[in-house]
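Bug #77: duplicate submission created two jobs. Keeping one. Sequence:
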Amino acid sequence: MEGWHRGKVDVLFSHFLFELQKRRLERGSESREALVLHSADWVQIVPVLPDGRILLIRQWRYGSESFHLEFPGGLVDPGEAPRAAAERELREETGYRAGSWRVLGELDPNPAILDNRLHVFAAEGLERVGEIDGDEDEEIELVPVTKDEIVGLIRRGEMRHGLMIASWWLFRDHLG
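Kept job's structure:
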């Protein structure tokens, strides 16, 4: 099966988080239009405390209008490497720095409408180096939990953000 090739791109709306693009797609003599949210890549960190617990954050999400338990993470800034973004986001959202890092994998958050990637890392050897210093619209609460508690949170629907569950799966897979 042959894929589609991108032609003309019109930006319909632009915001620091994303652009809404109308893309002309072509394949041989066929053409069509598609709406795509163009965004910078994202990073997600599974932070492991020295006692083996996992450090989650609880924060309000405007889209679902509810609190979510999540792993720290965020946007990769222009020109920034994913690992550097992960280090920055961990520090900003938790006040911790990691002694060691592992790449767990990359995910396509929603390839039907998004064109970015999620880079997933594990951060171990955590050391508290300061206070939470997130964005002004973030209200973050630190929630340390055991690995078994995460499974229970997912089963009970208390941790339901799809990208967090996928990141957890990658982390669990790396545990062997």
